[in-house]
Structure formats: structure tokens, C-alpha cells
Amino acid sequence: MDFFTDNAGLCGIPGLPKCGTHLSVGGKIGIGLGACAALMLLLICSTCWWKRRQNILRTQRIAAREAPYAKARTQSLRDLFHGYSSNDFRNLCSD
């Protein structure tokens, strides 16, 4: 038990002094302020990300509303190519 009693910073073990408070009031306040600052930073970053995402979605909705021909044109090309088989294209080209 000599290796315990020779260390001045040890406490809480039977035979050694009881442990007191290790953090000062300033240290506790610093931890609290740091946690609040981290929480505020997280809230600000998440709010900025959410607003940016909303703006992107709003812009996409506006762009889709202003150019309905683009979707109609894409759909008609898709229908054209998926509606025919390769034999139908050969028959169309041979006529």
C-alpha cells in the first residue's frame, strides 16, 4: 500500500483522504458556457442548412413550373423509344 500513500494527488481510496471538489466555480461556468456555445453553433448550422435546402427545392419547383415543355418533351421521347421494339424501328426504316 506504499505506492498509494506516496502519491499526494490520490484520494477516495480507503486509507486516503476524501476527495473534494476538483473543479472551481470558474471551471464549471466555463464548461456550461462552452456547452451553450456548441449548442448555439449546432442550431445555427442546422438552420442554415435547412433554409438552403428549402431555397433549392423552391427554385426547382419554380423552374419546373416555368418550363413544362421540357418535361413533356422528355416524356414523349421516352415513350417513343420505349414504345417501339428494335424490330419496329427496322420496319419503319425499311418502308
Question: What does this protein structure show overall?
Answer:
Keywords: Membrane, Transmembrane, Transmembrane helix. The chain has helices at 2-5, 25-66, 68-83, 86-94. It is mainly α and 95 residues long. The protein has one domain (23-94).
Write a concise synopsis of the structure shown.
Keywords: Membrane, Transmembrane, Transmembrane helix. With 95 residues, this protein is an all-alpha fold. It is built from four helices and no strands.
Secondary-structure map:
Elements: H1 2-5, H2 25-66, H3 68-83, H4 86-94
Domains counted in the coordinates: how many?
1
Based on Cα principal axes, name the global outline.
rod-shaped
In terms of structural class, how would the helical and strand content be classed? mainly alpha
- Percent of residues in β-strands: under 5%
Tell me the distance between the termini.
104 Å
Low-confidence stretches: none
